[in-house]
Design goal:
Number of strands of chain B: 4
Helix content of chain B: over 70%
CATH class of one domain in chain B: Mainly Alpha
Strand order of the largest sheet of chain B: 1-4
Number of helices of chain A: 9
Order of helices and strands of chain A: HEEEHEEHEHHHEHEHEEH
CATH architecture of the largest domain in chain A: 3-Layer(aba) Sandwich
Strand content of chain B: under 5%
Order of helices and strands of chain B: HHHHHHEHEHHEHHHHEHHH
Oligomer: heterodimer
Shape of chain A: globular
Low-confidence stretches of chain B: 1-5, 401-406
Largest sheet of chain B: 2 strands, antiparallel
Structural class of chain B: mainly alpha
Distance between the termini of chain B: 13 Å
Strand order of the largest sheet of chain A: 6-7-8-3-9-10
Strand content of chain A: 15-25%
Distance between the termini of chain A: 14 Å
Chain lengths: 271, 406
């Protein structure tokens, strides 16, 4: 894509995760038509587009939930295969879905270690499923993860998730993704259902992710949030790239126009 | 979380429910209320009105308490099993019928000369298979558990009638009868009780000191010692009361041991954690890689196991197997009622096998107390219904996040 080179130029940091020419068909629907996308470490890359532009599909392809029909994956420049969620997890790619997938009946520590519970050593004769849980170890891990993201409003890792606010839940879902030794964290509409204070809290967590040298992919419809946290913005439309902008060199109007009409009508203006 | 200026009674109650042992409080209160009414209030009323010459606490006599525990044991066994599937948000309506089939099979087997211990092992396997078969239909075919186990209820009732065409069979096998008849000698009962108390206190204190060492938040000393003292008092009181009439029966020791094992599995192993996770949010459990379908099947297998054990306990206690005592009677509803009165949510993700035992005691105490006062079967049914409703209402009102803050 020449437009991408034009928008980003030499300012673009070296990509940590990059995909080239991603194609995805759902039956007769051509959902992704050769999409390029990249994100660097220590960067928040916003992914925007109108409904049906292919944001969620692209994100699921990156997370291994959908298998791309064509295209290449590069991690730090080396080609890699992502054909299942496990592949993505092993490469350090984590996704926080919009519904968060938390168990409200369990406490924060249990949610953070869900599916990867610590067990006490010395019970090797039992199948792993029946070895005693190491609750304290999980609490220590949870406290570390929460402290790393500086979620100050959370008082106890033993609180049930069902009693927490929306922002705290979002932070816990993010902490779970980060806790899994990840380098790429993808967030799907993390502030969609939140009030002002809660949104602020989540944006602070996203900024912390950037400071801890994660590559963050941030999907949102909210221009204010995007312009507050993102470093670059990739615009998709009808399953193709429109352009990638450096956030500090563009403005919301330009992004909205790119999302809804593409570059053709605004030719030359986008640079 | 947020400190509020004033808490209503319900808020305090909800906060209490959140603590580790707080979940026992409502059912313990219900039990205390029932025992207080039948054991103290009614005899006092009799005394005042001149119907009785002296204060006679029949209900709270060691003999009646002993019978009460034994009567509640079969209900409790089934309720413990049903609690496991309730944790997943499923239900098992066939548990009592499964117990009936297992008990009938046990009776026929020992009658035909199979040794008692072998017959017990065989019916336990049969129970597990009967439960797992239903679990396979729920998990892999995707039929709601209500429908699968309703079909199981009908089918297994029929099966029991096929095995027992006369509807009744005496079980005289010494091994089977022994489960309910063997008594632990008084001294050993006390030693066992003290050992359990010591273990409980040690585990709690050790956890507290580890928490301190790791710099984690600690339970308050009041809560810690409160738990230990309350637990000790209950255990010692139960053992002494039973000793005062006969002794600690083997049946109860077995029931408590099995419940302790299941309680440990559900709260302290990755498998148990996955039960709660699937009950809380199955999609979330699937995404983190839990094998949701296998977990479902295994939970139904555990109900089958507990139903079979319940069948053995029942056959042992009654000395006979009859259609009405298991499949055709009120056992199923009492067992589900016991689990729910104990505070296990029908929607999954919340509950405990220990609460099922206490719930069974509530149901058993009601039946026993009403029997002693000469109430009719009709009264018993209506009172049981009212208590069940009351228990669920208390549960709904005190549920964390009820009304506000969601």
């Amino acid at each position: 894509m020449t437009s991408e080179d034009k928008m980003v130029g030499q300012a673009a940091p070296p990509a940590h995760l990059a995909v080239r020419g991603i194609q995805k068909w759902f039956g007769g629907v051509h959902a992704l038509r050769g999409v390029d996308f990249e994100v660097a470490r220590g960067e928040v890359m916003a992914l925007v587009g109108d409904n049906g532009a292919g944001k969620s599909t692209l994100m699921k392809v990156l997370a291994g939930a959908h298998l791309a029909d064509d295209g290449t994956f590069l991690l730090d420049g080396k080609p890699v295969e992502v054909t299942s969620p496990n592949d993505a997890t092993e490469l350090g790619i984590q996704i926080v879905y919009q519904d968060l997938a938390l168990c409200e009946n369990l406490d924060v520590a249990a949610n953070l270690s869900l599916g990867a519970e610590s067990v006490k050593p010395g019970w090797g004769f039992l199948p792993r499923l029946l070895r005693p849980l190491d609750d304290l170890e999980m609490e220590v891990k949870a406290k570390k993860a929460i402290d790393r993201l500086e979620v100050r409003t959370l008082q106890s890792v033993r609180a049930k998730v069902g009693g927490l606010s929306g922002g705290q839940r979002q932070a816990i879902a993010i902490a779970r993704a980060v806790g899994a030794e990840s380098s790429v964290v993808m967030l799907d509409e993390p502030t969609a259902a939140l009030g002002v204070a809660q949104t602020r809290q989540v944006l602070e967590v996203v900024k912390r992710l950037r400071e801890t040298n994660h590559a963050v992919v941030y999907i949102s419809h909210n221009m204010r949030d995007i312009f507050e946290v993102s470093d670059r913005i990739t615009v998709l439309r009808h399953g193709t790239n429109v352009a990638t902008y450096t956030t500090s060199e563009t403005n919301p109007d330009e992004i909205v126009v790119a999302m809804t009409r593409g570059l053709d009508t605004e030719n030359g203006n986008a640079a | 979380m947020q400190p509020e200026a004033k808490m209503t009674f319900l808020d305090r109650f909800s906060a209490l429910r959140e603590t580790q042992f707080g979940a026992f409080v409502p059912v313990l209160l219900a039990l205390a209320a029932i025992w207080g009414y039948f054991g103290l209030v009614l005899p006092l009323i009799d005394l005042m009105s001149g119907e009785a010459d002296s204060f006679r606490a029949i209900f709270l006599s060691p003999r009646n308490i002993y019978n009460l525990f034994m009567q509640s044991a079969v209900i409790a066994t089934l309720a413990v099993g049903i609690t496991i599937v309730l944790l997943l948000g499923d239900i098992d309506l066939s548990a009592a019928a499964t117990a009936g089939v297992c008990a009938a099979l046990l009776g026929v087997l020992v009658l035909s000369g199979v040794p008692g211990w072998l017959a017990c092992i065989i019916v336990i396997f049969v129970g597990i298979i009967m439960g797992a078969a239903q679990g396979l239909l729920v998990a892999y075919v995707g039929i709601p558990s209500f429908v699968v186990t309703l079909a199981g209820l009908l089918g297994y009732q029929g099966l029991m009638q096929k095995i027992l065409p006369t509807g009744n069979l005496n079980v005289g096998d010494p091994f089977v009868r022994g489960i309910a008849r063997v008594l632990i000698p008084d001294l050993w009962g006390i030693v066992l009780g003290l050992a359990v108390v010591g273990l409980f206190a040690y585990a709690n204190l050790r956890k507290q000191s580890l928490r301190k060492a790791l710099g984690l938040e600690q339970d308050s000393a009041f809560a810690l010692w409160g738990q230990v003292v309350a637990f000790s008092v209950i255990v010692v009181a139960v053992v002494l009361t039973l000793n005062a009439y006969r002794s600690l029966p083997l049946l109860l020791v077995l029931l408590i041991a099995i419940t302790a094992l299941l309680g440990w599995i559900t709260t302290s192993t990755p498998y148990g954690r996955s039960l709660f996770a699937v009950g809380g949010n199955a999609e979330s459990a699937r995404r983190v890689g839990m094998k949701v379908k296998r977990i479902r099947v295994s939970a139904f297998a555990i109900v089958g196991l507990m139903a079979a054990i319940g069948g053995i306990f029942g056959a042992s206690r009654y000395g006979s197997v009859s259609y009405t005592a298991f499949a055709g009677g009120s056992l199923l509803l009492e067992a589900i009622g016991a689990a729910v009165i104990g505070g296990t949510s029908l929607f999954g993700g919340r509950g405990s096998v220990w609460n099922a035992i206490l719930g069974a005691l509530v149901i058993g105490s009601l039946g026993n107390g009403l029997d002693l006062t000469g109430a009719s079967a009709a009264d018993k049914l209506m009172v049981s219904g009212a208590i069940l409703l009351l228990a669920v209402a208390i549960d709904a009102l005190s549920r964390p996040g009820n009304g506000s803050g969601r």
